[in-house]
Amino acid sequence: QVQLVESGGGLVQAGGSLRLSCAASGRTYSNFIMAWFRQAPGKEREFVILINWSTGDTIDTDSVKGRFTISRDNARRTVYLQMFSLKPEDTGVYYCAAGIRVGYNSAQYDFWGQGTQVTVSS
User: Fold this and answer.
1) Quick one: DSSP state of residue 43?
2) What is the dihedral of CA 34, 109, 91, 54, to 10 degrees?
3) b/e string for 1-37 if b means 16 or more Cβ within 10 A?
4) Span 66-108, pLDDT tens digits
5) What is the mean pLDDT of the chain?
6) DSSP letter string over 70-114?
7) pLDDT score recorded for residue 3
8) 8: which of 20, 53, 76, 82 fits an S-S bond (Cβ 3.0–4.6 Å)?
9) Whether the predicted pLDDT of 27 surpasses 90
């Protein structure tokens, strides 16, 4: 079993920055794909960005290109989502997820954190 715990959410003004963390514990694998999804009120959970824990390769969605980056610290078994130039439309609950293959659909991920709220005010 894998446990994921997110932290770092909060309220920020448009144009501001936040860094989210996702700490993994339990039976983690070096070949995991670690992803961030987000869900705004009344909307479906959507893919944001992912990283291959082994290679460090990343993929992000168009709406966050040039603003969000993802990284990992192998020693701490932690994945980070650094968010710059935040917009009100970035508001939502951000979830960390782990799986064994690259995917953009939430159903493709086996393990999830509890989520952390990000609110961007205009």
Assistant:
1) S
2) 10
3) ebebebebbeebeeeeebebbbbbeeeeeeebbbbbb
4) 999 999 998 999 999 999 999 999 999 999 999 999 999 999 9
5) 95
6) EEEETTTTEEEEEE-S--GGG-EEEEEEEESS--SSGGG--EE--
7) 95
8) 20
9) no
* pLDDT score of 87: 98
Which residues lie below 8 Å from residue 8, measured CB to CB, with a gap of 6+? 18, 19, 20, 21, 116
3-state SS assignment for residue 122: coil
Six-digit token string for 23: 């700490």
In this prediction, what percent of the chain has a pLDDT beyond 70?
100
Query: What is the C-alpha R_g of the chain?
Result: 13
Q: What are phi and psi of 19, to 5 degrees?
A: -125, 125
